[in-house]
Write a structure and sequence with these properties.
The complex is a heterodimer of chains A (283) and B (204).
Chain A lengths: L1 E12 L2 E11 L3 E5 L6 H8 L7 E6 L2 E2 L5 H4 L3 E4 L11 H9 L7 H10 L13 H12 L6 E5 L7 H14 L6 E6 L2 H7 L2 E6 L2 E7 H7 E6 L1 H6 L5 E7 L2 E7 L14 H11 L4
Helix pairs in contact in A: 4-5
Chain B lengths: L1 H27 L6 H21 L2 H5 L6 H32 L7 H61 L4 H30 L2
Classes of the chains: A alpha/beta (283), B mainly alpha (204).
Chain lengths: 283, 204
Amino acid sequence: MNAIELDGITKRYDGFLLDNVSFSLPRGAILGLVGENGAGKSTTIKLIMNAIQRDSGMIRVLGEDNTSKAFADVKQDIGIVLDEAYYPEVLNAAQVGTVMKRTYLRWDETAYQYHLKLLDIPLKKQFREFSRGMKMKLAIAVALSHQPKLLILDEATSGLDPMVRDEILTLFNDFTRDEEHSILLSSHIVSDLEKVCDYIAFLHKGKLMLCEEKDRLLERYAIVKTTQSSLDQFPLDTVISSKAGPYGVEALVRKERLPHGVQTEFTTLETIILFLAKGGERA
Amino acid sequence: MKGLMLKDYYTLLKQLKLYLVFIVILSVIPNTNLSSIAIVYAAMLPITAIAYDERSKWDQLAAMMPYSKRELVFSKYLIGYIGVAVCMFLSLGLQAIVGAFGGQPFTIETVLAIVLTSFAGLILLALNLPFMFWLGVERGRVVFMVLIAVTVFLGMMSAESAKKVLELSTITPEMLIGIGALAAIAANVVAVAISLKLYQKKMV
């Protein structure tokens, strides 16, 4: 059973096309949505929440078509954190809690107070005096305090210092211990995604370049450092993309197509993403 | 809807306290026409709430929370309705008290002027909010300034005109209130529908 399913989603704006995007987030898993600025991550999240209308395709969230009337109830089960969209700045954390109590049917005040304390958020300080990191922490505390089954987090860890980021990533990991709980996490910080995600979806210029299990991705690709002439000898479709340096050529390759005996180096998710973006092809 | 109303209440809380003082001062000054300023100010409250929402991009977040677009739009009208109603009853009450203690007499013209100005405030709200939903507060404010100038002028005139209308015609005060109420209701029904369309269009 999937928490989120996107099938052939297309959305066109002037100068931007989210092109036929399909992926799914299995229940109990964390999917990292990665891509450069303007790749379509926020548009995808808005489409998932039916905050904007799609041009074509189908989206199901927690088993419900997101254009159906029943989706209004499904929203009760979704905790949301958006990049740069917050509560009005004159509110404080205590008031945000009171507003959310009247918004979410399963609001858990004890959980809210716990998360405020854990994340060191002052209760009476106005939101306008919060740093960006504090704003994100408050949004995360709200998102975790109404017994959600799904968290949708747009750049939730950006602007946070490494220690708080780590703390929050631990919270996300704890959240998905319940196999009914899932997270869609969009981020520029690939290292964060690498730490917590089970699946990675990579959007580049409105196109989905890949959506795969993180571990499989790391098994499937490798880095080869060689010369251009050696690289040219590799079978077709082996090299995803390459870059020339002073000591030769560095290339991202598909391991299964690599000739025997070729030395490879372990790669990171960030390297794979960078090479895929450079190569501009679907994996 | 309760959550949205509460959010706007917290957003406007500081202003509401000042506003209460403002109404009291305007109402006890022995000049009925000044109440119209307080009533028109009450019709402005939703614009302030929308401005705060825009500054924090609350709409984007709210669109993903369990609020319907209808609730998001109508809650803003509701703030205006509550504001105008509270202001109207406060003005009437204070004017009656001032009259009882030997100030300006509390006459039917006083009541008519306050009630009709309240309807004018609601019509102003109906004319204005669709522009706010369409253009945003920054650009919608220009339209608002024009509308408010016209409404304040009409409000200031309303006591005199109400008196003259009552003297020269067979229209009774009840009829005048009825006509005002109908105009305010009709304007708001149309305005809410237009605002909803504009809001939905903006969220595409």
